[in-house]
Amino acid sequence: MSKTAWLVVDMTEDFVATNGALTCGQSGQAIVDPLVKSLTKARVQGDLIIFACDAHEPQDAEFRLWPPHCIKGTSGAMLYGAVKNFYDTYRSDSVFYLEKTRYDAFYETNLDDLLRSHAIKNVHIAGVCTSICCYATASGAYYRGYGVYLEPTLMADLTDKDHNYAIQHMRDVLKAQ
Length: 177
Ligand code: ZN
Known about the structure:
Helix content: 25-40%
Strand content: 15-25%
Strand order of the largest sheet: 3-2-1-4-5
Bound molecules: zinc ion
Number of helices: 7
Radius of gyration: 15 Å
Shape: globular
Oligomer: single chain
Distance between the termini: 17 Å
CATH superfamily: Isochorismatase-like
Structural class: alpha/beta
């Protein structure tokens, strides 16, 4: 069976912590425990685990649309809580962090090469926000021929409406399972 990669999107202080700059708040915090449980299992199975996180320059063009968030080197750009603990404990050549600057973790990163070098065929998307960076990253994976997997309980969004719509949309147009 081919290996799976987990693409854990934007589980950072700014997107999840109560005082984060662009936070999902409680809905983001609610996925932390189930996510860490799933990652623990995935790691034991030998899956690749990639924490793909915004890492913006202070003047990033994205800040014309959103409040400044996840600026490189700030605490807001750090992984959140138990997700950070997991990363700090298990970081290795199969558990690692990937900086991204756009919603889609494939955009101007080496993610595709990296997945191919590990012979990955399927990706499991988790994290925040369901309708923005998770959706964009799932689309990026689909365009490149990867099978897309998701669980609604391992993603969160700014609103439930956006979350539910994006889950259904990914199932409908990206064949997400
Ligand atoms: Zn951003």
